[in-house]
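Morning!

This is the sequence you dropped in the shared folder:
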Amino acid sequence: MFGAKPFKRKMILWPYLFLTPTVVSTILFVIYPFLANFFYSTVQWDGFGPKVFVGGGNFVALFRDERFWSALVTNFLYFIFVTALPLFFGLVVASVIARGRLAGTRFFQSAYFIPQVVAAIALGTIFRWIYAPLFGVLHQVFKIIGWEEMSRSWLGTPETATTAVGLIGTWAWLGFCIIIFVAGIQKVDQALYEAAILDGANSLAQFRYITLPDLRFEIAVVLVMTSVQCLGSFAFAIVSSTTAGAYGTRPVALYAYQLAFVEGKVGYASAVVVVLTILMFAIAAASLFLGERRAQE
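The structure's back. Tokens below.
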């Protein structure tokens, strides 16, 4: 009896003990870097010398920076390839796989998901070889079918580099979208489809009025994941691009990297990262809010 209270106290402390590694790692690797980056965004600093406090000067210069706006436009172009196209084709393919009763469905799901388990650096390197103008796979395909005039330095010119790198993102994220949507379609009550068939609804009508409304939460999740990836990652661009095409494929994250480690403008690069973080949070919050609101309706 006398030892019951100390035992209960120990049992209450156990959950907090297990949470300690997560809390400590979050403070060290998420909260502290975020606060430190915000501080650096208010100073003029090259990474080694003294820090000169400039307040909001970096942000004022940022919104007058043509290179920043060019990088932001590139990000919105990537949004089409990394978010819009995988979302659209993911819905179509997932609907066929989940409701088409195709043979080898599990094989197709695994095959589509392979890019998600391959490092972005590896994917960028692979596609750099595919896009190579003289010995790449794409050049060889054009040569076989007689379209040799289509062969060019896809990653070497700004006119084609953005599209070429964007298609890498489309291929990489298509599998993720398919897996999420297949899981969402499988939870839909099959009685709804049976009733729709009895009412004479075709496949397109079933998709529009049954499948799509029930996938609102999954669509919100896909929007958050792909949008954050689109804004925050530059692995595809920095690995797959050549020197001539790097400027044309430079997103905001890569621009911040070049400012900090090439031009030595750490404070200014931190301001770019702060704006990028705010954009990420805004897009994620809007996507989740719309997904939850429509799900409640």
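Headline: The first strand starts at residue 43 and ends at 44.

More detail when I'm at my desk.
O.
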